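TL;DR need structure tokens for one chain.
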Amino acid sequence: MGNPWFETVAVAQRRAQKRLPKSVYGAIVGGSEKGLTFSDNLAAFDELGFAPHIAGLHASRDQSVSVMGQQVSMPVIISPTGVQAVHPDGEVAVARAAANRGVAMGLSSFASKAIEEVTAVNSQVLFQMYWSGGRDIMVQRIERAKAAGAKGIILTLDWTFSNGRDWGSPWIPENGEGCVPSRRCQARR
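>> reply
TL;DR here they are.
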């Protein structure tokens, strides 16, 4: 018998929508413009299947790989996800769980916890940085991430701060100052 709480992704989404604050749920499922990437991603996952191969299994398996010079237990990196404050420990809890499994974590520029708190519990953190602000601000962000122990930078170029993110994404200031690692995010409208 399956898990009675989590029958399908659709059921989990309905439960999350009922339990999470509207802004948090909107940020999780939000997309931009017509939502084409969102719907393309759903269609791509629908094409995946699982075909177990029972015969010929090796006695031991090793899925470890090297990512940016860091040995990780499997080819997985926790994706940078902003404002995980829906849980009191937020990104620190995710980083701790990732470290317990030998997995690297991408820390969002829009994190609710400081990079120093996150790298204190997981030595394999990659800091995500949006191409925003001037050169000096970006260098400051990189230097702070490096000083905190981040192992690399995930440079994100997909957010142009346009008005096209109209169905659930958090508000981002147009001047590109957003939630930088030097301070915590504060919602402003």
